[in-house]
Amino acid sequence: MAVREALLGILTLGPAYGLQLHSELCERAPHRLRTNVGQIYGTLDRLVVAGLVQREGETADGLPLYALTPSGNQTAVDWLSGATLVSATDWSELLDRILIARSLDDSFMESLVGAYEVLLTCDTGEPAPTGTGHSTLLAAANARFQDAALAWLGDVRRDMSSRYGLYDGNSAGPSLAAHGYSAARPKRGRPSVPLNK
């Protein structure tokens, strides 16, 4: 589960409080709707200890705000751009990276999608097992996953093209905008902190 990295990515928008981050995660990555609010706060505590996030003031009603440290910002950018991608075998991780990156700053999308495509199309050099055992079923599952993931990344590329004209990813492309925090009040929470706060 990439909740840690997803929170770092979301925090590239600026300081936010815990319940706000939970709401943003669930909105930006709907497959994470079952993420527990306590997991968000526990993850934030670990990110503070790791030096990737720091407490930066509080809301008008006393909730602590969390912000990225320079190291946390670099970790987030590396994750969003695919620079740290070493495996493409986890479907939830694929969804996390693509959906979070798409919802934050479109400039990450080309490098991230490209990194996944490279990993998914690399030949492992291992012959496909024959027979009817577990290894054969696993190889078949991996092949199906690879096909499905590449097909979905094709959908992502079409979405990118439809959002930005005929951008082919080979040029600088159009000016792509960053997306801010939701102005909606999180469930059971306080209003969101504005992007420019």
From TrEMBL:
<feature type="region of interest" description="Disordered">
    <location>
        <begin position="178"/>
        <end position="197"/>
    </location>
</feature>
<dbReference type="InterPro" id="IPR036390">
    <property type="entry name" value="WH_DNA-bd_sf"/>
</dbReference>
<feature type="domain" description="Transcription regulator PadR N-terminal">
    <location>
        <begin position="7"/>
        <end position="74"/>
    </location>
</feature>
<protein>
    <submittedName>
        <fullName>DNA-binding PadR family transcriptional regulator</fullName>
    </submittedName>
</protein>
<keyword id="KW-0238">DNA-binding</keyword>
<dbReference type="Pfam" id="PF03551">
    <property type="entry name" value="PadR"/>
</dbReference>
<dbReference type="InterPro" id="IPR005149">
    <property type="entry name" value="Tscrpt_reg_PadR_N"/>
</dbReference>
<dbReference type="GO" id="GO:0003677">
    <property type="term" value="F:DNA binding"/>
</dbReference>
<dbReference type="InterPro" id="IPR036388">
    <property type="entry name" value="WH-like_DNA-bd_sf"/>
</dbReference>
